[in-house]
Amino acid sequence: MSFMLIQTPNPLTLRDALPNFSKITHIFLPINDCCNPSVAEGGSHWSLLVVSIIDGLAFHYDSLHPSNKDEAVTTTKKLGTLLDKELQFLDLADTPQQENSSDCGVFVCVEMKHLLLKKLLSTHNKEQINMSMGGKHIDAPYGRKEMLRVIEGFRKEGERRRSYVALMFEAALILIDRLFIGDLRVRTKRIRRIHHELIDVAARCPISNFALIPFASARIAVLCFTNCPIH
């Protein structure tokens, strides 16, 4: 989103492509220094911009301060135009600094987690929140391991859901086959109900499993044609 804002001369043209911010209090925006939209792997550094819409403040956290300041300032101005709200830019020089040239992405992820969980979500509405990261130590190697654990958890959850879906479809297809055994006539209403149940199962699954719906529909059609005599 920040890259789109930077590259678009008139940010108001992005209104239909972006979420509705009318009920949003804070926006977390990773900032990249890429200036060439035709290069997918462009840019060499990430920082974090946290915009408090309700306070009209934009906090910039740069682990190689002040590398991404210009990009963050531009993003803040264009976001303010988009929101029709004046935003004050605050470049936080006390942000924890990385010790190499490869940990910026990890720092952004750890900062987002800390600011959301330890600052915004742990403070009562009427309390003033100190958004400074000063004095916060960021253990980049531990952060990388934690990110890998999260990714692995999502991977296993995805496999579990795919296995469940495959099992449900197999059971549904067996049920369809059994409904047509012998001379048993299945009425159109019952066929439609089964088809809707298949779609309902697929709706709770990854999009790739929707490919199974035409197969199940074809199975129903073949069985109807095979088992219903033509008069």
Describe the model:
This protein is an alpha+beta fold. Helices cover 48% and strands 10% of the residues. The protein is built from six helices and four strands; from the N terminus they run αβββαβαααα. It has a four-stranded mixed β-sheet with strand order 1-2-3-4, sandwiched between helices. A hairpin with a 4-residue loop joins strand 2 and strand 3. It is globular.
List its traits.
4 strands; 231 residues; single chain; 10% strand; disordered C terminus; alpha+beta; four-stranded mixed sheet
Tally of helical runs: 6
Helices and strands: which structural class? alpha+beta
Q: DSSP strand (E) fraction?
A: 5-15%
**What order do the strands of the largest sheet run in, or round the barrel if closed?**
1-2-3-4
Indicate the overall shape: globular
Uncertain residue ranges: 225-231
What letter string, H or E per element, gives the SSE order?
HEEEHEHHHH
The number of E-state strands comes to 4
The value of Rg in angstroms is 26 Å
Largest sheet: 4 strands, mixed
> End-to-end span in angstroms?
62 Å
Mean pLDDT: 81
Helix content percent band: 40-55%
Summarize, please.
The protein has helices at residues 2-7, 69-83, 104-120, 140-179, 188-203, 212-227, and strands at residues 26-32, 46-52, 57-61, 88-92.
Write the layout of secondary structure elements.
Elements: H1 2-7, E1 26-32, E2 46-52, E3 57-61, H2 69-83, E4 88-92, H3 104-120, H4 140-179, H5 188-203, H6 212-227
Parallel strand pairs: 3-4
Antiparallel strand pairs: 1-2, 2-3
